């Protein structure tokens, strides 16, 4: 739900209806899909395999949410990868049924737990659970997305997944992206500074961004956006002279505090080649984020 929280909170502020769908089983993640009037959709869920099913319920504009159960058909199976006949469950809830304080916490990328009370599959109420209360009563960990279901309630743990933005292209960029995915991070690769700005604006202290490229203006612009973000790790690839040129470019634009930049990026482990460089950068990012 983190990826849709900005748009859904804007809908809530403007009084625009939005119905939010999350998957309960068999796949658990922080992904969500929101439906708005007129057929609008925000976010994605299971590759869109169940959009029709969920949209049909959302179009009913129910005042209370529903727990939906469904059996995967052949077409849905080909889209989402689940075997035909698999039982899936979703929660589809009007955004205004969630506590108002949920959205700012999601925007801040905090771990959030909420419990939906059920009566004959109807969501009668939703309440936020404090982290202390959840740790005391939960049968599982709170550091990753999780769902706990009983006959009369569903508890959903929303735990943000680390994001990595790779601002660049080429073999090293691809190796860094692959290493990030191996670690379970959400990875985005982009070369256009304007697009990097949008990606960087969504970063939190649990996230990182790596900037590379031989074009001083392009890479420096990306670094400027990185410094404006809340990213916990900022790495810059390139020689010492390249780092100095970027620092000069930033200084010309009144950006003089570059202490957050790790450059040249990566731990000094004598890495050679894209794969080893990617490992050294990932290790440095992990170390930096552990200190945030």
Topology:
Blueprint: H1 5-14, E1 19-25, E2 33-36, E3 40-43, H2 51-58, E4 66-71, H3 74-80, E5 87-94, H4 102-107, E6 112-119, E7 122-129, H5 131-137, E8 146-149, E9 153-158, E10 163-167, H6 171-182, E11 186-190, H7 193-201, E12 208-211, H8 216-228, E13 233-236, H9 240-251, E14 261-262, H10 273-290
Parallel strand pairs: 10-11, 10-12, 12-13, 13-14
Antiparallel strand pairs: 1-2, 1-5, 2-3, 4-5, 6-7, 6-9, 8-9
Helix pairs in contact: 6-10, 7-8, 8-9
Shape, principal axes of CA atoms: elongated
Structural class: alpha/beta
Overall tally of structural domains: 2
Number of strands: 14
Name the helicity range.
25-40%
The average pLDDT is 92
Major beta-sheet overview = 5 strands, antiparallel
Which band does the percent of strand residues land in?
A: 25-35%
Describe it:
This protein has 10 helices and 14 strands. With 292 residues, it is an alpha/beta fold. It folds into 2 domains: 157 residues, no CATH class; 128 residues, Rossmann fold, CATH 3.40.50. A hairpin with a 7-residue loop joins strand 1 and strand 2. Helix 6 packs across helix 10, helix 7 runs parallel beside helix 8 and helix 8 crosses helix 9. The model has no long low-confidence stretch (mean pLDDT 92).
A few lines on this structure:
Helix content is 35%, strand content 26%. The protein is built from ten helices and 14 strands.
Comma- or semicolon-separated keywords:
292 residues, 2 domains, five-stranded parallel beta sheet, Rossmann fold, elongated, five-stranded antiparallel beta sheet, alpha/beta
